[in-house]
């Protein structure tokens, strides 16, 4: 009985957090629809795709980023308020690839972005290795 108020506070924060995640999900979904519309508009109205390559790739990768963020919101609710580190690493790699496609004419920036992608891929590999190792240790022999 002594710690009843702790549970009430925790329930309140969980309610607020879930409400905010729903709002964030709706906002991200709105941005996703807007980017899909912009991409469709670009693809249907641009006559010379080569001259608008940067705009098209930027819009395409923005759609993927918003889609991945929507997946994060979905994962939050499916996995009972838990989002895996792996998802964040994937989003980081996608965002950096987008940046490389947009800033491909700047050599040093491209090199640093490629190095960053390499670091994230190594981090993802290490994360998966230790996650699998942890699962194997939990299994009864």
Describe the structure in brief:
This protein is mainly alpha-helical. 84% of the residues lie in helices and 0% in strands.
Can you offer a commentary on this structure?
The protein has helices spanning 4-45, 53-78, 85-102, 107-138. It is an all-alpha fold and 141 residues long. It has one domain. Helix 1 runs antiparallel to helix 2 (53-78), helix 2 (53-78) runs antiparallel to helix 3 and helix 3 (85-102) packs antiparallel against helix 4. This is Protein PsiE.
Keywords for this entry:
transmembrane helix, 4 helices, mainly alpha, membrane, 0% strand, single chain, 141 residues, P_starv_induced_PsiE-like
Please outline the helices and strands.
Blueprint: H1 4-45, H2 53-78, H3 85-102, H4 107-138
Helix pairs in contact: 1-2, 2-3, 3-4
Point out poorly predicted stretches. Answer: none
Structural class: mainly alpha
Q: What's the number of helices?
A: 4
Using only C-alpha atoms, the radius of gyration works out to: 20 Å
How much of the polypeptide forms β-strand, as a percent range? under 5%
How many domain modules?
1
Largest sheet: none
Assign a percent range to the helix content.
Answer: over 70%
Shape: flat
Membrane topology: Multi-pass membrane protein
Pfam families: PsiE
Protein name: Protein PsiE
Subcellular location: Cell inner membrane
């Amino acid at each position: 009985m002594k710690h009843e108020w702790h549970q009430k506070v925790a329930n309140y924060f969980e309610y607020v957090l879930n409400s905010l995640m729903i709002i964030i999900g709706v906002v991200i979904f709105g941005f996703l629809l807007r980017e899909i519309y912009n991409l469709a508009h670009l693809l249907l109205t641009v006559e010379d795709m080569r001259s608008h390559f940067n705009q098209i790739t930027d819009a395409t990768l923005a759609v993927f980023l918003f889609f991945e963020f929507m997946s994060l919101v979905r994962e939050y609710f499916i996995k009972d308020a838990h989002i895996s580190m792996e998802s964040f690493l994937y989003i980081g790699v996608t965002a950096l690839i987008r940046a490389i496609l947009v800033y491909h004419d700047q050599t040093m920036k491209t090199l640093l972005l490629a190095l960053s992608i390499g670091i994230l891929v190594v981090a993802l590999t290490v994360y998966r290795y230790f996650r699998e190792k942890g699962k194997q240790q939990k299994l009864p022999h």
